[in-house]
Structures are given as structure tokens and as C-alpha cells.
Design goal:
This protein is 35% helix and 15% strand. By secondary structure, it is α/β, with parallel strands linked by helices. It has one domain (4-270): Rossmann fold (3-Layer(aba) Sandwich), CATH 3.40.50. The protein has an eight-stranded mixed beta sheet with strand order 1-4-3-2-5-6-7-8, sandwiched between helices. The protein starts with a strand and ends in a 7-residue tail after the last strand. The relative contact order is 0.14. The model is unreliable at 1-17 (pLDDT under 50). The chain binds nicotinamide-adenine-dinucleotide (NAD). The site of nicotinamide-adenine-dinucleotide has 27 residues, from helix 1.
Length: 277
């Protein structure tokens, strides 16, 4: 198990402060995670940017605005390992109580920008999607909630997907929708994470920790990568465009705020009007 922790500044390691609001963003070096990290930093959180890509995590943490000297950090590790998640929660708690946890870690393996047919999906590919998209968020919540305040200010947000409800559609050449380039494993993993979100909201209600999900349709990030953006894809979306990562970060900011103080256990659709039922 290899864990690397980097600080975004040269300052000496600071003592824990009950005043510091700490946020963890997993997949924090990715397209959506990086934007969410920036938003949380702008709101005054000390952000721990956790990602398997060490250089990217460190770079993302170092680029965040430092409000009132907030000490952002990069944390590198494979979050499918429960020990790594235990270390991540402990490290984040060193600077203050963990007020916010955003699970943006996720993978959607594709071949040449196209979905992998279900009958070609290898055991390892299936297992890896489940490990990253379901097990990793679970492992981290299982550790981090211990460090979260119980005064009603703490909140967890999981990145789900429209595929949690719709499935991932038919083969690449299907004549019917939904047209979604991800493999069946991805949709199944996001449905599992949506269910986990509901269950954890019940488990943690007594500690006044809210747990919600955000279900985007298409978002313009590297995850969409080589997927050809054609009329067939965009034609499903009434607003005829992908979401911007900032629009996902706005929803996170709302769900963690006092304005959402009575919202827990939901999956918030952010998909440009795409009908999910
Ligand atoms: N982009 C979209 O269209 C879209 C749509 C719906 C939902 N989502 C979800 O939003 C979240 C963020 O997506 P994104 O578009 O930013 O993806 P991304 O690929 O840009 O970012 C994902 C990040 O997770 C990191 N990561 C992958 N495996 C890891 C592991 N084992 N341990 C630690 N880090 C790991 C990657 O290094 C990457 O930085 C994902 O959960 C994704 O499923 C994305």
C-alpha cells in the first residue's frame, strides 16, 4: 500500500483547529472533482484533493484559492484500498473537523471512445468499475464519518449518474435510446451508489450528517474523452448541450449549504431536462 501526502504550501504542519472546515474531494484531480475543489476552496474550506494521480492531485491542491490561509493538500493513493481511505480520513481530520466529503472518484472504461459490449467485458474490468465507483466511496464514508461534526453542519455528496436510473442503453449501433457510451458495469455501479446514498442517509441521520447524490447526464470532462458528440447523443438532451463542471459544483455547493438543511438521501438530476422516468 503506497500512500503519499503532500502539502500545497511550505508552511509547517498546523495544529488541528476546530474553526477550520475541512473538505475531502475524491477524484479531485479529475474534470468535475477539480472544479468542485475550487468551489469549496472559494467558500473557505481547507480542501484535501485525493486522487490516484499524485502529480495531478498536488497540482490541483496548489492551484486552489487560499481563503484566510486555508491549507489545501494533495493526497495520492488508490482509493479502492480501504487502508488508503482510513489514512485519508485521518490526514484530513488533522487540520480540523471534516465538514464535507464529496465522492467524485469514478471510472468509465471505453474502447476507442465507444462502450464495451457486455459480452466482451472482462472480469477485471467489471470488478475494477465496482471497486472504484462503489467500494471506494463506501470505504471512505465508513472512515470519515467518525471525524464529522454532529451539529448538523456536515454533509456527504456522491457523484452518481443518469445511468443509475436509465441503464446504459443498447449496443453502439442500437436504433433506440438511451444512447450512453458507458458499459453495463458503469450503470450498475452508479445504481449501487445511489442505493448506498439512500442507506447511508438513514444510517447517519441520527448524527445529523446529510448524505445526497448528484446524477449528471453528460458533463464536458476527460471522462467523455473520445466519445463522438453527435446529434444522436445530444438529441436526447432538451437543452442540447453537455453540462459544464461548474454547474455540477454549483449543485454540490447548494447541497452542502444550510439552504439544503432538510434534504438528505436524494439523487439530484442535473441533465439538461433529460427524462429519467
Ligand atoms: N463526465 C461525465 O459526463 C459524468 C457524467 C455523470 C457522472 N459522472 C461522474 O462524476 C465523477 C467525476 O467524473 P469526471 O468526469 O470528473 O471524471 P474524470 O475521469 O475526469 O475524473 C475521475 C478522477 O478519479 C481518479 N481516479 C480513478 N481511479 C481512482 C482510484 N482508484 N483512486 C483514486 N482516484 C482515482 C482519476 O485519476 C481522475 O482524476 C465520476 O464519479 C463520474 O462517474 C461524470
Amino acid at each position: 500500500m503506497e500512500i503519499t501526502i503532500a502539502q500545497s504550501t511550505d508552511q509547517a504542519f498546523s495544529q488541528p483547529s476546530t474553526l477550520t472546515r475541512t473538505a475531502i474531494v475524491t477524484g479531485g484531480a479529475g474534470g468535475i472533482g477539480r472544479t468542485i475543489s475550487r468551489r469549496l476552496a472559494a467558500e473557505g474550506y481547507a480542501v484535501v484533493v485525493a486522487d490516484i494521480d499524485q502529480a495531478a492531485a498536488d497540482q490541483a491542491a496548489a492551484s486552489l484559492p487560499q481563503i484566510d490561509g486555508a491549507d489545501h493538500r494533495g493526497f495520492a493513493g488508490d482509493l479502492t484500498d480501504s487502508g488508503v481511505n482510513r489514512a485519508l480520513a485521518a490526514v484530513a481530520a488533522e487540520t480540523g473537523q471534516i465538514s464535507v466529503l464529496v465522492n467524485a472518484v469514478g471510472i468509465s472504461p471505453k474502447r476507442n471512445g465507444r462502450k464495451i459490449p457486455f459480452f466482451e467485458l472482462a472480469d477485471e474490468e467489471w470488478n475494477q468499475v465496482m471497486a472504484v465507483n462503489v467500494s471506494a466511496p463506501f470505504f471512505l464514508v465508513r472512515e470519515a464519518f467518525r471525524y464529522m461534526p454532529t451539529d448538523g453542519s456536515a454533509s456527504i455528496v456522491n457523484l452518481l449518474s443518469i445511468t443509475a436510473k436509465l441503464g446504459t442503453g443498447g449496443p453502439s449501433d442500437a436504433s433506440f435510446g438511451p444512447f450512453l457510451p458507458s458499459s453495463v458495469a458503469y450503470g450498475a455501479s452508479k445504481a449501487a451508489l445511489q442505493n448506498l446514498t439512500a442507506s447511508l442517509s438513514h444510517e447517519l441521520a441520527g448524527r445529523r450528517i446529510r448524505v445526497n447524490g448528484i446524477a449528471p447526464g453528460f458533463v464536458q470532462t476527460p471522462m467523455m474523452g473520445d466519445v463522438p458528440v453527435d446529434e444522436r447523443l445530444l438529441g436526447q438532451v432538451p437543452m442540447r448541450r453537455f453540462a459544464k463542471p461548474e454547474e455540477i459544483a454549483d449543485a454540490v455547493a447548494f447541497l452542502i449549504s444550510d439552504k439544503a438543511s432538510y434534504i438528505t438521501g436524494i439523487s439530484l438530476d442535473i441533465n439538461g431536462g433529460w427524462r429519467t422516468c
